[in-house]
Every structure is written in structure tokens, then in C-alpha cells.
Amino acid sequence: MGYANKPELAVVGIETSKLHLKAVLLRDGELLCKVLENDMAGYRWLRSWLQKNEVDVTGLRVCLRLDAPHSDIAARSLALMGMQVCDAPPAELAQFARGSGLDAQDMGAVLLAHYAAAGQPPRWTPPSPAYLELRLWLQRLQAVQEVRRQEAARLDGHLQAGQQALHDLLIEQIACLDQQIAEHEEVILAHIRRHPNLDKPPELAGKHQRVARLAFPTEKATRL
After folding, report:
1. Does residue 85 contact residue 3 with C-beta atoms inside 8 Å?
2. Which tens digits make up the pLDDT trace of 206-222?
3. Residues 6+ apart with CB under 8 A from 76
4. What does the pLDDT look like over 72-124, one tens digit per residue?
5. Distance from C-alpha of 100 to C-alpha of 9, rounded to nearest angstrom
6. Is the dihedral of CA 196, 202, 205, 209 positive or negative?
7. How many CA atoms lie within 13 A of 39 on its CB side?
8. ∠ CA 62-59-121 to the nearest 5 degrees?
9. Which residues contact 195 (CB under 8 A, 6 or more apart)?
10. Helix (H, G, I), strand (E, B), or coil: what is residue 16?
């Protein structure tokens, strides 16, 4: 059967994890499953597997939970391959499962494939390079702040143990970390000033209050 001529009959649901993708191809009511690596080689294998099953990947609807960890790179890579990547918000996915008599507790690839076929979720647009760079800067800032928190937690222990030299060394290191944090914040704010229409990234939800306050005041933050 020439499924390549009927791409609308095929959809794919993909469940992501740190190391693997579980892909489920749904076509004419039949399911095919494939487990691949969550890396560029795995995305290429997915494309090859679909083509071997006579599925045209151009415009193929592929549904992921973009709120799930380790889904960002997969979504961007598949979109660049010409697939129509779609998001499945958890609340909408659970509602669909209940209405369809499917397992609402299982938010995996099978449910995602059925959701893509029945709900026809809108196409996801990959974020701009500037937005991705902002998120990377914020993640780096968070990593430095975590190191500072850990070092600060050791201060009292060294002092109580009479380890004055270690205590003084930590004081100096914390001061260096404070300087790094300030530099990171300035770079982030300068980046946002160069790209004033960026959406507020999830890393700013409840964190990095100074950056959030200066870069995304209340009237702008409502654009989320």
C-alpha cells in the first residue's frame, strides 16, 4: 500500500527521556513502535524507520509533550527535518484521554499518537536562536548561583570546626562567585535589550528576581 501518498493517515507520538525516544507510528488504526537514542543519530534513524514504513516525513504530524524534560532538542531537530511538530499540553492531553476512554495516567507515546490523530493540535514553531541563547545564559546563571549556595552552606561548619583558613578561603571564593553572578546578570540584561520582543522563559518563573524585575516588568510578563 502506498502510504507515502497519504501522509495525512500517519501520525507519530513521541515520548522523550534523557537517553531515549519512544516513537509510536499510528496509521489506519495500526500502531508500530520504535525506541531510539535521544540524539541526532536517533532522529535520523527515526526518519529512516518512517521512510522504510512508506511514510513521507515531510509535513508528518509528530506530537510531543514539550513541557517534558529532554524534549527541546528533539522537537527542534525533527522540525528542521520537515516534520510538523505539535505540542500536547498535559491538561488537554489528560482531557482527551478521558474522553476517548484511554488511560489518562499513561501520558506516553501511544496516547500522544492518538491525540495527534484526533485532535490535530496546531503546529509548533521552534523558538528563535536569541530565545534559546537567553535560556542557556539563565541556566548558566542558575548553575553559578547553586555553587554559591553550596559554598555559603559550608561557611559555618568551617568556622565552628576552627578551620579559619578554609573559612577565609571560602569568603574569597564566594566574593568571586558574586562577581560572576553580577556579570552573568548584566550579560543577560544586555541580551534582552538587544532582543526586546523575547518571551519570558520558564527559568525566570519564581527565580532570578532581579533579572525578571528589570527585563520583564509586569506589563511585559503578561505576554507569556
Report:
1. no
2. 677 778 887 777 544 44
3. 126
4. 899 999 999 999 999 998 888 888 888 887 766 666 899 999 999 987 788 89
5. 19
6. negative
7. 3
8. 45
9. 128, 130, 131, 134
10. strand
What are the CA-CA distances from residue 166 to residues 144, 158, 173, 174, 205 (Å)? 20, 6, 10, 12, 35
Judge whether residue 224 has pLDDT over 60. Answer: no
Q: 105: which 3 cell numbers?
A: 495516567
User: What is 194-205 written as a DSSP string?
Assistant: HSTTPPPPGGGT
Q: Which has the higher per-residue pLDDT, 214 or 1?
A: 214
Phi, psi dihedral angles at 67 (to 5 degrees): -85, -10
CA count, 13 A, side-chain hemisphere, 196: 3
Helix (H) or strand (E) holding 26: strand 20-27
> CA–CA separation, 108 vs 65, rounded Å?
9
102 sits in the region (left: phi over 0; alpha: psi -120 to 50; else beta) called beta
Regarding pTM above 0.85, the answer is no
Q: Residue range 11-23: average pLDDT?
A: 95
**Residues 20 and 7: beta-carbon distance below 8 Å:** no
Element (H, E) at 85: strand 84-87
